[in-house]
Amino acid sequence: MDVYLPIANLSVNGLWIVALGGVTGLLSGLFGVGGGFLTTPLLIFYGVPPTVAAASAATQVTGASVSGVFAHSRRSGVDYRMGGVMVAGGMVGAVIGSLLFRFLRAIGQIDVVISALYVILLGSIGTMMAREAVRALRGRSSASAAKRRRHHPLVTSLPMRWRFYRSGLYISPLAPLILGVLVGILTMLMGVGGGFILVPAMLYILGMSANVVVGTSLFNILFVTIATTMMHSLTTRAVDIVLVGLLLIGSVTGAQMGTQVAAKVKPEILRLILASIVLAIALRMFFGLFVRPDEIYTIAPL
């Protein structure tokens, strides 16, 4: 089933795009990540211009996040107060990211920047998560390690503390606010929900309780990607609605399946699987930086 993507100016196999959406939704429910970190690179590998891939993936992540948030909310797995602070920061970050996106595209460097950011961020996060998961599976994840995470000096040194009851924290709201700003910028630039950075940061920097990390991450991703979609639609105009629709068909169902599986599998194993996927994509993106593409011009909608 071939379909034509008007903004991308490309004919693709519609069933393949739906399947990709299903995988994205599955990852969303399993790990609390929006799935854009996987969707955007795979769309680029398939021939979709990076600008269109990033903008459309951010839109599709919204649908996957809605489904995941409802599933986790039913089991009280969302800290709405923590999520609200992160969302506020994410809105600011989306505006900053929009300005950066337009500037980089104006100087013709947006495609290279998107690819380079993926290599740096995915490589760093994947390595950290893999190391932590292996240590946990070997029995080295002790209560003292968890205690260290709850007393990170960058967090405890910030003023004006609030209580976040579901997360079991008494910290400054500035920490999740700043984290939200960074995620908002990345969402705008890279088309990711930011969960692949947000989840480790919530666990290892903020020290949040593990049973609310996934749901709270999806709650933040939901609203930030909505803002990002609006920014892209009004400024960059790089959202391909046909591509988004195909991705959404698979992602909503996949998110429900992922949530059910996540409740039955050890968190350490899930983190190791996610780290492996992240590192594999980082290596592929790194290789792509040194290969001359078939089409040396990017597509910029008027």
TrEMBL record:
Record's keyword annotation contains Transmembrane helix: yes
Pfam family, one: TauE
Protein topology in the membrane: Multi-pass membrane protein
UniProt keyword annotations, A-Z: Cell membrane, Membrane, Transmembrane, Transmembrane helix
Annotated transmembrane regions: 12-38, 83-104, 110-130, 169-197, 203-226, 238-257, 269-291
Protein location: Cell membrane; Membrane
Record family assignment: Belongs to the 4-toluene sulfonate uptake permease (TSUP) (TC 2.A.102) family.
Protein name: Probable membrane transporter protein
